[in-house]
């Protein structure tokens, strides 16, 4: 019993140390949560400390995720990335890290909503705050975490510019994306009504950001009221932005920059569901909604 307690305490220290190291490495909060979760799951599966395991045991764990728990390849890919980072950077087992295989990708085309469905979704929001948040997510192609971290100062409107500064996004990169003129007008009206503090969109308490769970709940409720019989998540609005922007004439390289994709190959997946006339950057919302 004493030995089991000692190993449990050492396991917790391992997780704490791993989290601290990831934070020092300036990884995003989402990455830290994912990587720590992957290491914790490995330890729980074998009831042993990770540095005492061999490659076959790591493979057994990943096989259980895929076969028994039926996790998809994207989820397993995150687990593999976390375990590789641990073995390479925490315990200097580089050879073991290289032997952990990434799952074979099974890419699928992104699901999107039609323009009519987007209108239904926007009109089904119960308040100005949720409505303008969903319209901003779509019209600027934002990720969930990006909109939750926005401040008023991130909206650039001087000198005739209409864009949003995204700070420390995925991969710790900064970038700019477009700001719809129509949504900007709605944001000003929202600001006058809500007077948010620190963040553009406050949560339950003024000065604190809205939570991902709160935003997700608002979307689920709006989708239900709109009568949309699709599995809709927040990232679909970003897919809609990319697809509709290409259809309205945005250049593929411009879209890659606005989305913050490192590789053009990631952006090119939207070619399968869009046509690509060439034009300069703009928000697709301004092109189709009168």
Keyword list:
290 residues, mainly alpha, 3-stranded antiparallel sheet, globular
Number of strands: 3
Beta-strand percent range: under 5%
Main β-sheet, spatial strand arrangement: 1-2-3
Mean pLDDT comes to 88
Helix content: 55-70%
Largest sheet: 3 strands, antiparallel
Q: In whole angstroms, how far apart are the ends?
A: 70 Å
Structural class: mainly alpha
Quaternary: single chain
- What are the secondary-structure elements, in order, as H or E? HHHHHHHHEEEHHHHHH
SSE topology sketch:
Blueprint: H1 2-24, H2 29-46, H3 55-68, H4 73-89, H5 94-99, H6 115-123, H7 128-140, H8 144-148, E1 155-156, E2 163-166, E3 175-178, H9 181-194, H10 212-226, H11 234-247, H12 252-259, H13 264-268, H14 284-288
Antiparallel strand pairs: 1-2, 2-3
Helix pairs in contact: 1-2, 2-4, 6-10, 7-9, 7-11
Characterization of the model:
The chain is mostly helical and 290 residues long. Helix content is 57%, strand content 3%. It contains 14 helices and three strands. The protein has a three-stranded antiparallel beta sheet with strand order 1-2-3. Strand 2 and strand 3 (175-178) form a beta hairpin. It starts with a helix and ends with a helix. 30% of the residues are buried. The mean pLDDT is 88.
Tell me briefly what this model is.
This protein is mainly alpha-helical. The protein has 14 helices and three strands. The longest helix has 23 residues, at 2-24.
